[in-house]
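input
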Amino acid sequence: MSVYRHTELDLKKINYKKPEKQGLVYYSGIDYKNEPLYLQTPKLILTKSGLQTIESKNNNLELEPVNNDYSFYDTLLNLDELNVKRTFENNKEWFDKDIPLEVIDNMYKRNNKPVKKDSKPLFSFKVPLIKEKVQCQVFDQKKNTLDLKTIKEGTECICILHIKGLKFLKQHFYCDCYVSQIKIMSPRVEKYMIIEECMIDDDNGDNEENKEEDIYILDDNILNEINIQKREEQKKIDKKNELIEKISNLQKELENL
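output
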């Protein structure tokens, strides 16, 4: 079995089988060079948790690109266009009808929604469940198995998709694909751990006697600077006291008036 990255995929090598009736629907199998088509996604980010995926109605894994890379989105768009084109080219053989291209294009239900301006593509892939039990394997980077329920929103992962075939219903058809495997990427580890808040304690525990001894070690220039600073601080204190006294006298005059 081969797994292909989206950058390696050659759309010309995708084969479509004539639809066969399966219950109430018709199904056209897809293969790639006569093997099942398994497509590996790039690294993506989960936009909802694994538990939310399991509990949702459609059980779809919802993801977005890690960055603004649109290459995987473009690959899926090209696959959608190929599905429409091959259905149109074979509609006479498959359905014994000449169906216009426009009608086939309107009947085709695309998995990927158009991307809004200045926003990332959003991907939605079905997780196979049987009796609420996840059928696809979930691994970490050390190949340990994980429970999808424990995977949190915002986790980075890589998926393997099985592009199984085209499923034809009464009024529309779509590309049937599901998640076959998930690999959870470990959280990024920062190379440097930088503390934003100042945590340096510059108090060496010296007593006042030691501090006075340290002064004698200082040269005259530094001592002069210290004395100047002290005089300036005393001036400010004196000025403050003078202003307080003036304010007090003014308040008394105001009360007398």
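quick obs: The CA atoms of residues 192 and 198 lie 16 Å apart.
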